[in-house]
């Protein structure tokens, strides 16, 4: 009779362990999937930027530095040597430069009236919104994952199997500041 009770306890502990381990695996997979959604949207933005810059070049002859900076940052984001943190930092810098660029376009009515520019601008704004949403989803998923990693009793399983907390994506200092436009 004692063996049956001991066996039942071992089975219950084993099932408990398996369920918590699988829960951690599932959340880690969701976290990775959420990151890949960010990556997809960054790639979409990467593909849209040359069209926007090419259209703007003909109208914005005095803004060559801003356009060159956008292209430089665009190319930097897809560098295979960048870590996720460096990719996020480069993305934050590009977002700030794009906001400044869009503010500058206000001074060019012909550019704003250009159909190609308007279409690419709309697509880029929609993509920026998708990037923001993807970052929110990533942070939510990381929060759920981190809660599971830190909560008892799953924290015991997490420590044994080397599950570690992950950091959140945060707005950069540039993104927290208002865009300043100076036409002088």
TrEMBL record:
For the keyword Transferase, the answer is no
Give the source's domain of life in one word. Bacteria
Enumerate the UniProt keywords alphabetically: Membrane, Transmembrane, Transmembrane helix
The record lists the organism as: Alkalicoccobacillus gibsonii
Record's subcellular location: Membrane
Membrane protein topology class: Single-pass membrane protein
State the name under which the record lists this protein. Answer: LemA family protein
Which residue ranges traverse the bilayer?
A: 6-25
- Hey, which family's this protein in? Belongs to the LemA family.
Matching entries from Gene3D superfamilies are given as: LemA-like domain (1.20.1440.20)
User: Principal place where this protein is found?
Assistant: membrane
Q: Where does the secretion signal sit in this chain?
A: none
